[in-house]
Amino acid sequence: MNDEQADNFDDRVLLFAPTARDGTTSRDLLATAGIRCSICDSMEDIVGEARHGAGAGVVTAEAILGDREGHLLQWRRSQPAWSDFPLIILMPAGADSPALLRALQELGHFTLMKRPVQVSTFVSTVQAVLRDRERQYAVRDLLVQRKRTEDALRANEERLQLATETLKEADRRKDDFIALLAHELRNPLAPIRNGLQVMRLAGNDANAIVQARAMMERQLGHMIRLIDDLLDISRISRNKMELRRTRILLADVVSNAVETSRPAIEAAGHELLVSLPAQPIFLDADLTRLAQVFSNLLSNSAKYTERGGRIWLSAETRHGTVSVSVRDTGIGIPADALPTIFDMFSQVDRSIERSSGGLGIGLALVKGLVEMHNGTVAAASAGQGKGSTFTVKLPLLESPPEPLGLISQESGAPAQRRPGWRILVADDNRDSAESMAMLLKLLGHEIAIAHDGLEAVEMGSRFRPQIILMDVGMPRLNGLEAARRIRAQPWGEAIIIIALTGWGQNGNRAQSREAGCNGHLVKPLHLPDLEKLLAELMGENRRESDQIDN
User: Fold this and answer.
1) pTM for the full predicted model
2) 232 to each of 30, 178, 182, 376, 519, how far by Cα in Å?
3) How confident is the model at residue 184 (pLDDT cuts 50, 70, 90)?
4) Strand pairing category for 56-60 and 87-91
5) 534, HSE (Cβ side, Cα atoms, 13 Å)
């Protein structure tokens, strides 16, 4: 082709004229009518250009007869269903030869024009075949659009099918998890109920009562851990978990984790080997939550390792990160389970989970907590029976550590008791209120009970307590509003009010402070925590009173 090309060739006319002069004249003539024209040098050239796009072709009968290799015929037969390429054939004057008639018959649809051709007739004929081509393009576009729509629908159906299968699998896992949760929550309840019966029937058998109480405390602790894990995973999934970041030592994290998981490791007869770098490793992290990560991994290794196995915890620093690995000689992880090992409700071996206790959400919790510390966690295993390795990578603290101050260590002993306080217990759960009242009475305190917010305000006015243990979620008037009303009274200004609730996030504690509460404790209440907080708060009150007196 020997003239200008455009980006879109769909409306151009391809011209194979007898002579170069005829081609130039025809092109100029069509140009005056606003029709683009490309001059071709051969029939093969026309076919090549038509493949790039063209509205029509103009050729001579002599060119048809000269196309002995059938370029034009083969191309027209190979067109898509929507296309019938318009072809104008300029016939010579006189009779048509038999050879030409046979060639034309094979070509199919075309338009014949006898030479010499009138200009107006030629132009109008070209315009007519171009309009016909536009209609073909409209059909093409409709077919393309339909194909795209069909492809989109098919893709949507595939995505919907995949989403349906995913939801079915998640629903199945959820059902399994709920069944397991019910099983695990019932497990501690049976020995607790049995323990209560033993204590009722034991009479003066102090040894039986002591054993029953120890068993009940163990089972209660197990239940609390289950519920805490559930709450933690729920907070993480809803972005409600808040970290209390400080500059901490990795060694302290590992020490706390080992202390928590050691009973399970020793009970299974495992050997634990810990290897940390000699230099101190500082992190910007929540010590409690990070210790929870590694205690979960260590407990997991203890659970999934045959009795008498070995567990390694090691750490190394590299390129501004610390990698902490927990490796064991346990049952290992199948290759197909590795991609989903950290998913919620995902478990490798349900039978082991049920025999050893737990909900199977520990690794999901690990992943959530690690990612909240801007870290990563990965699992690796050579296969079943070949152990597993979990590697946690965390960023090192970039700024140089400041000298650590002395940190006081808690002995774990209950705070020194000061009997004789007047305490109001406000809780709409009657069993909870009465059991707490019984416990506080045994410690020598004078107790009053209220079962809703309004009763708490009224009882406070009559009883004039020194301390109020205020349940937050009570009927008629919630605990926080009751605290505000008590603070508004002259007799309520100096009372110690401690909020009791199942919610322990920073936002919940802030709400308690805004309502006038001095402290915030999370249920179930641990007696040493309560005694320690009361001792601190009553000590502050005494110091403030001494300053006022002076």
Assistant:
1) 0.48
2) 79, 17, 18, 18, 22
3) low
4) parallel
5) 23
CB 206 within 8 A of CB 338: no
- Can you read off the two tokens belonging to residue 489? 């009274």
pLDDT tens across 367-391, in order? 989 999 999 999 999 988 899 999 9
CB atoms within 10 A of CB 15: 24
Q: Is the distance from CB of 333 to CB of 341 less than 8 angstroms?
A: yes
pLDDT band at residue 543 using 50, 70 and 90 as cut-offs = low
198-257 pLDDT per residue, tens: 888 888 889 988 988 888 887 887 788 778 777 777 777 777 777 888 899 999 999 989
Q: What is the pLDDT of residues 189-207, one digit of tens each?
A: 877 888 888 888 888 889 9
d(CA 46, CA 65): 15
What are the sequence ranges of the domains in the chain? 13-117, 246-395, 422-549
Residues with Cβ within 8 Å of 55's Cβ and at least 6 positions away in sequence, in order, are 10, 11, 12, 13, 86, 129, 130, 133, 134
Topology of domain 422-549 in CATH is Rossmann fold (3.40.50)
- When the candidates are 1.20.1740.10, 3.40.50.720, 3.40.50.2300, 3.40.190.10, the CATH number that belongs to 13-117 is 3.40.50.2300
CATH: 3.30.565.10, 3.40.50.20, 3.40.50.300, 3.40.140.10. Which one for 246-395?
A: 3.30.565.10
Q: Quick check: 13 and 126 in contact, CB under 8 A? A: yes
Sequence-distant (6+) residues with CB within 8 A of 18 are 60, 62
Task: Identify the band that residue 109 occupies on the pLDDT scale cut at 50, 70 and 90.
Answer: confident
